[in-house]
Amino acid sequence: MLVLEEEDxxxxxxxxxxxxxxxDGLYGYDPANNxxxxxxxxxxVRARLPEKGGLPGLFRISFTAxxxxxxxxxxxxxxxxxxxxxxxxLSREAEIGVPLSGAALWVF
Length: 108
Known about the structure:
By secondary structure, this protein is an alpha+beta fold. The protein has helices spanning 6-11, 15-27, 41-48, 68-80, and strands at 2-4, 29-30, 35-36, 59-63, 96-97, 104-107. The chain has one domain. The protein is 37% helix and 17% strand. The strands form 2 sheets. Strands 1-4-6-5 form a 4-stranded mixed beta sheet. It has a two-stranded antiparallel ribbon with strand order 2-3. A hairpin with a 4-residue loop joins β2 (29-30) and β3. α2 packs parallel to α4.
């Protein structure tokens, strides 16, 4: 779970930039090529799939106080991200859900 703390919001007036900064660390983002490297959080999820019988899991990205528009923009951005091989960072089968509260993204 990724939680955007109040001090993260205070560090930047741009909430989306603060969220992306946290995600970049998890996904191994390469800003020079504007792609995720496939290392970091996504790699750890893939490594654990065999432990779970090869079934994809479910994870949640939570935020303390974003606007729903920011969460929806982040959802759109995650779907569009590509890795170095030119493939999308999330598989075609991956789905991203936003609860009515707008306080989290569910990825499965």
